[in-house]
Amino acid sequence: MIRVLIADDQTIVRAGFAALLAAQPDIDVVAQGGDGREAVRLAETHRPDVVLMDIRMPGMDGIDATKRILADPANASTRVLVLTTFDVDEYVYEALSAGASGFLLKDATADDLVSAVRVVARGDALLAPQVTGRLIKEFSRQRRARPRPAPGLATLTARETEVLGLIAGGLSNGEIARSLVVSEHTVKTHVARVFTKLGLRDRAQAVVLAYESGLVTPGGARED
């Protein structure tokens, strides 16, 4: 069973999500909260597999709540799926930077919501990497932010660094394998090592780190 915590300040929205997810044979809605502070408390109590996290809530917002939940070592297997009204929203970028595994629009279909929970629960990023990449490129361009050092990059081999750059470029494992002329199994091994060395949860975090560290630029080229 996939254990889900729902955090949203709108009671009707929260109840609707809960009813839909609870109707699935493999999903159990273990708790519901109306703000970020309550979400943190409920995550500590229930240790959910997935948190559906609204971004804009009174008091503690979804970004701070995401940071606090994922900073708790006991929540190492918890994934956060951010809910937002807008597909291009600076808060979405902040949430991904905080460790969220992806985001979902509140007007998504019922099937999309259920599928999203299952995707995130098995440890994958919700969005296709190229979609997350475009989002991060856009905010990198808007902010003109200076690269943030990522000391862990120095621990990567040349091939692992290359694989990280390709992930940030939106390539799937199969596409990376064809680009490097290696097997997909080899690529999966490289990706696993990159995630382990850099302490990443999924591809969404890998894309964020690649752009924030300056490994790749908003134009798509790697910084050597």
Automatic annotation (TrEMBL):
Signal peptide: none annotated. Pfam families: GerE, Response_reg. One of its GO terms (biological process) is regulation of DNA-templated transcription. The keyword Phosphoprotein applies. The keyword Cell membrane does not apply. Residues 3-121 form the Response regulatory domain. The modification 4-aspartylphosphate is found at residue 54. One of its GO terms (molecular function) is DNA binding. Keywords: DNA-binding, Phosphoprotein, Transcription, Transcription regulation. Residues 149-214 form the HTH luxR-type domain. This is LuxR family two component transcriptional regulator. The lineage of its organism: Bacteria, Bacillati, Actinomycetota, Actinomycetes, Streptosporangiales.
